[in-house]
Give the backbone structure.
Amino acid sequence: MKRRDADDTRRRIFEAATAEFGAHGIAGARIDRIAAAAGANKQLIYAYFGNKRELFDTVVSGHLARLLDEAPFDPTDLPAHAASIFDHYIRHPELARLGAWHALDPAEAGHRIAALESVIKARTAAVKHAQRAGKISDTIPAADLLAMVANLASMWAVPTQEWSPPGGITPAQARRHRAALLEAVRRLVEPA
Amino acid sequence: MKRRDADDTRRRIFEAATAEFGAHGIAGARIDRIAAAAGANKQLIYAYFGNKRELFDTVVSGHLARLLDEAPFDPTDLPAHAASIFDHYIRHPELARLGAWHALDPAEAGHRIAALESVIKARTAAVKHAQRAGKISDTIPAADLLAMVANLASMWAVPTQEWSPPGGITPAQARRHRAALLEAVRRLVEPA
């Protein structure tokens, strides 16, 4: 197979796997359906990506890399960072859905995704540094502050339906949620 | 069947359904397994609770009723309210897990649980009232503020594993998360 064809096949598998894992989770995902949707051979999926869990890891890591690329992180401006995560999730809710399945599935309990772990570690250190330098408040410990910002920024990507009107979140509501998020994170970091 | 026996059977079905839905979600739950775990007849489950979705509704509504009973709500003291939700979830993570499945499952998209919807509606009105009376800040709209508090209070009940050390959250970490939560919610509602 030519290099360009192989890249194209990998991309189609990645997209089909994103849709399958996003809808059905890890336990519920079927490699057969991913193969059919991608128009690819099942054996080729195993050859390219390994087993189902390895494929899930690759898919999560790929979406995480895109988030890191699109949502700039500046520990001294966490409101802007939160807004950029929020904007990313409005366009691409996939990563938030995949993360939620990953947290829920009992079979995932001991499974830690290396790419996610290393981002959290680096960012916690950066927030701690900004706190020590007095750039942002330190009344909330760095790790908790970062987890709160990530949570508040992603909560409308996989919303519990009772929190929104039937039919889902409209663009006008998304703007209001975004403004509320900016204000909330500003309050979390402002000097006491 | 005597009344007391029937109550006991219902209780066993409720508990078995909680475990089954919590581990496998709605799509993945099997009525056969619930029947086996409860030592009850499958037909009896349908007779008592209706179909799988109705059983799920009853289970969520039952756990919600317990949360409402255990976690007092005072719109003028949202930090204490958040801490009481947090404490409840440390003891009973079931409702947080059930809610997460409910939000994730594509088949649940149009399905709104009445008990949950009415609590959100009543509490949003109460928060709005407290804001208008000047008891708490109104720079974050009531509905967003309530959703943020609920989210922050439950985020450690179904945590993404990479946010915590391997082995899960220790009692000492839970105390630190609780203190951080109190401080965060205090910041969200304090007059500007």
In short: The two ends of chain A are 62 Å apart (CA to CA). Chain A has two domains: 1-50, 52-189.
